[in-house]
Specification:
mainly alpha, 6 helices, rod-shaped
């Protein structure tokens, strides 16, 4: 099959990226691959930057980490940057521990009120206000009281 004659108005020397009819366009293929790699790379950088507050909050308490994670997710899904800024600031600030003094106050008030269930040697607190023994024992029938001692008759 003979190639048709070139149009006399066309330049005699065409650049290498101009292809003939029926040939593959190598420049378009290269640019398509480049575009796919660039979009995926930008997306990964965006998601890595978006997760920055969560990575910074890993060293903090669990509650603070959860707040930061929720704010970052809100920022991701709503596209409100104020949530991301709030998450970043919250990850940077170390929140004080309020639970230990509150537990101490609650246990002291429990002792003062006469409802002390543990005796005077409570030296360890957990995150509950009082170490409730009913938390460890499931509810059920109460154990029977021990039998009363019978007086012995002297003969």
């Amino acid at each position: 099959m003979d190639h048709p004659a070139m149009n006399p108005a066309a330049p005699h020397h065409l650049p290498s990226f101009v292809t003939g009819p029926g040939q593959s366009d190598w420049l378009m293929t290269v640019m398509a691959v480049f575009l796919i790699v660039a979009v995926i790379s930008v997306g990964l950088v965006y998601l890595k930057l978006h997760a920055l507050p969560e990575h910074m909050a890993h060293r903090t308490s669990k509650v603070q980490y959860q707040f930061v994670a929720v704010l970052a997710l809100l920022a991701l899904f709503t596209h409100n940057n104020i949530f991301w800024i709030a998450a970043l600031l919250l990850a940077l600030v170390e929140l004080p521990n309020f639970s230990t003094p509150m537990n101490s106050i609650a246990l002291s008030l429990e002792k003062l009120s006469g409802r002390d269930r543990h005796g005077p040697d409570v030296s360890q607190w957990d995150d509950l206000l009082s170490n409730d023994p009913s938390r460890d024992n499931p509810p059920g029938p109460a154990p029977a009281p021990p039998p009363a001692p019978t007086p012995e008759k002297e003969a």
